[in-house]
Design a protein that fits this description.
CBS domain, 25% strand, six-stranded antiparallel sheet, Thioesterase, WH-like_DNA-bd_sf, single chain, CBS_dom_sf, 35% helix, Udp-n-acetylmuramoylalanyl-d-glutamate--2,6- Diaminopimelate Ligase, Chain: A, domain 1, CBS-domain, DRTGG, alpha+beta, 15 helices
Amino acid sequence: MILLATKHEQILEHIDSLSVGSKISVRGIAKALNVSEGTAYRAIKEAENQNMVSTIERVGTIRIEKKKKENIERLTFAEITKVVDGQVLGGREGLHKTLNKFVVGAMKLEAMMRYTEAGSLLIVGNRTNAHELAVKEGAAVLVTGGFDTTDKVKKLADEKKLPVISTSYDTFTVATMINRAIYDQLIKKEIVLVDDIYTTFEKASYLTTKDSVARWHELNESTHHSRYPVVDLKNRVVGMVTSKDVINKDPSLKIDKVMTKNPMTVQTRTSLTNAAHMMVWEGIELMPVVDQAQKLQGIISRQDVLKALQNLQRQPQIGETIDDLVSNQLELSEDDDQVFKLRTTVTPQMTNQLGTLSYGVFTSLITEASSRLLSKHKKGNLVVENISLLFIKPVQLESEIEIKPQLLEMGRKVAKVDVEVNHEHAVVGKALLMAQLIDR
């Protein structure tokens, strides 16, 4: 049976087939594929979410190359334009290209060209001779201070497809903004998504609504799995079947009569932590991975999630988040009283605008201390369900604080922890934490 793609899918396929650098508009897509402008707009927004296109002010929407996970820290010139709120003066067709490095042109022209090479971005003021030489070398140019460039440079940029961008910010601010954007990309790189670990549709085992219970037994013999997603004729996930559903059932009975309807699903852009929480909360061993139309893309198992979480803990940290900072600063107290205690010093990054320990960091300290205490009793990952916090006194910058987590109760799946935070033998905060535990 031939399944026809929806209009939404047809538009996404059309966008995917366009060459990198092509300009895209709602009206153009609607006219080319004979669809409404509303449908075209929704599909273009979805393409933007999938990093197939990029929308830039005063330029429009252009087709870009989809980044691979390992190259995520490399920014495109289109992203640079967004970061610095820039205006493209020339070379629009090269906005999809990625930059290898950026060079600040605060030197003589000859010295500047020694550092400027193909694929780099020269950040410079209104030195038009530097603009021209950089484009000839194969580099893009970012003009700071809101200055323009000559028509000759604009024409050359269009010919070579190398962007010349103007921004109103000064050179130092621009370099800081780009550096921050690269740093943010590095942190994004560390966030593991379902997309990174799921078993793809081609390798996944599944059943259709027309299959019988006998087909479940056949799959069970060949794959040794006991859980399978069930799809309809359009490959949309409509249910899940487990060994519990088919036990003592007639082998000729249709799967849709025994399956569990409306199962929990995840999408490829769902974070690993979110997927892990859903699995623990619902007691699920296997979940279907779907797209926005609920079509099966693959499956994810509890083993996949736990393996990825363990690998994640061993990864070197490239871009540090606040949680990483808190975790690295927290040290085990060496006192002789046999009580589990952790110590840390309040650094400037941990404070709020008043110079005291911020509430968000306080919460992170409580969670991290509880996690370390529980890891002594049980191997597993912690998913916080509820925290009740009591802030008694503000904690000043550079104060040394002591955190004492105490286990109140622990079951197979749930734990309760009481946490006391002290500074100079005085209680400055207390917390009660309830958490779900994921067994390893």
